[in-house]
User: Fold this.
Amino acid sequence: MIKDRFLRALRCQPVDCTPIWMMRQAGRFLPEYRATRARAGDFLTLCKTPELACEVTLQPVQRFPLDAAIIFSDILTIPDAMGLGLTLNEGEGPRFQHPVRHEKDVQRLFVPDPESELRYVTDAIRLVKTALQGRIPLIGFSGSPWTLATYMVEGRGSRDFRIIKTMLYDRPELLQQMLSIVSEAVITYLKAQAAAGVQAMMVFDTWGGVLSHQAFLDFSLQYMHRIVTAVKATYPEIPLILFTKGGGQWLPALADTGCDALGLDWTCSLAKARQLTANKVALQGNLDPAALYASAETIRKQVAAVLADFGPGPGHVFNLGHGVNPDTDPERVAVLIDAVHEQSRQSK
Assistant:
């Protein structure tokens, strides 16, 4: 039961206690990660060296009794493999030397071969699978087409998304053409991760919440729907999670894509989400990451509140509403994980 607790919850099957994993669980809040990152020299080398990516994937599950591992990588692997010239410098965030803004830029895009341009990811997955020996499941992931496109068009992270939103309104057909290519790349990438051995997959729509209602349906949701349909057609047994940050108003539409689970940020009520999705999908979330700055007693109370919000019945994976903050105390994370397991076990 312990080793498949996470997968059972994603399938809305009974579990002995609520499973937990955390977005960015392999990251800067862990001293062992910082040591490996220093050895690598830079973030991209860390991502692109399968042995190092395997090492940091395993670090949090060696330290904590987590119910799943997630492959250490970055959502920008696909646009990087398309030749856009990704750089990731400390304190600067991601930047692309060749942003996609004109017709000729879109025409140059292609679907990378995951066993050549992205082989470092599938190799890392194979290494992690061997190391885990079936103890807990491994999650693979990708960014959503819209979220990847924001970086590809803006050329970097953005606060107002002015360039891509101008394209969305002035040249919608050009953006749609680009999103179609990126969708095919995501489908190919996720299928390769599944073939390499991941047992669950997640699509991060980090910037879906910056869109208007109709723009979300036209420029984000329809492409995630396309991805779910294509991936599930080949790998129906592998659960697929969609996560749109700031997307609580679209939960019914997201549930209708055919995905197995929805990730929720901390602005959503789990109880309300269950109503909106009619228990059609499992729900993942949704503690505010900032709650981990609080005392151990407060963290335990916040865990109780999240579990009570979801209520009785299967189909809940405990997670944060976004990634672990880099300055989080690992001891607070240990309190969180123990509290989730202990409190949910008592209520089963």
